[in-house]
Structure formats: C-alpha cells, structure tokens
UniProtKB/TrEMBL annotation:
Transmembrane segments: none annotated. Residues 3-94 form the ABM domain. Pfam families: ABM. It comes from the Bacteria. This is ABM domain-containing protein. SUPFAM superfamilies: Dimeric alpha+beta barrel (SSF54909).
Amino acid sequence: MRVRSLLSLRVHPGQREAAAQAFARRRVLEECAEAIPGFLGGELMLSQDDPDLMYVSALWDGEASYRQWLASPVRAAQGPHLAIFLAQAPSSTLLEMAHSCNAPP
C-alpha cells in the first residue's frame, strides 16, 4: 500500500532560499531514488504562508521502503549538509493513501 511522508523543515530566518539551493545541490531526492527502490517520487515545497518553512513530500511503495530510507546511510550522510540551515529539529509524519484523483489530461 502506497504511503506519503511529509517532512516539515523550519530554517533560520532568511535562509530558506539558501537551504532550498543546498537541498537541490546535495541531490537529496535523487540520492533517495538511487538508494531506495521503493521511493516513487518526491518534492521540496516552499510555504507560501511562512518564509522560513519548507516541506519535503515523498511517495513510497509502502511503509517498509520509507523505514528503509530512515535507516539508510545515504540519508545519514545528507544530514550534516542541511542541518546548518535548520532552526529546529525536523518534524515528520507518514500518511496512508485513502483516496486520490488525478485531473484528466
């Protein structure tokens, strides 16, 4: 069963753009895709309501793949590169897909 993880990242004031650039340069999502076969895709999103808030949303083929990512040495190696931007510890949640709809082409 597919699941979605949602990671909330509060960065130091005025550091969101730099943090987003570092995230992309570090290839966080690309490395996840390379390391975890059950990673189906992800996005880094910038809050429109809060200039110091970012979210990472990722789709997984199941909870086991998400847990594999949490324990991955690739993820552990990414942490120090991004931690310098964080004003507080990240907050995450795992969501079970209950219903979805895609717009027609």
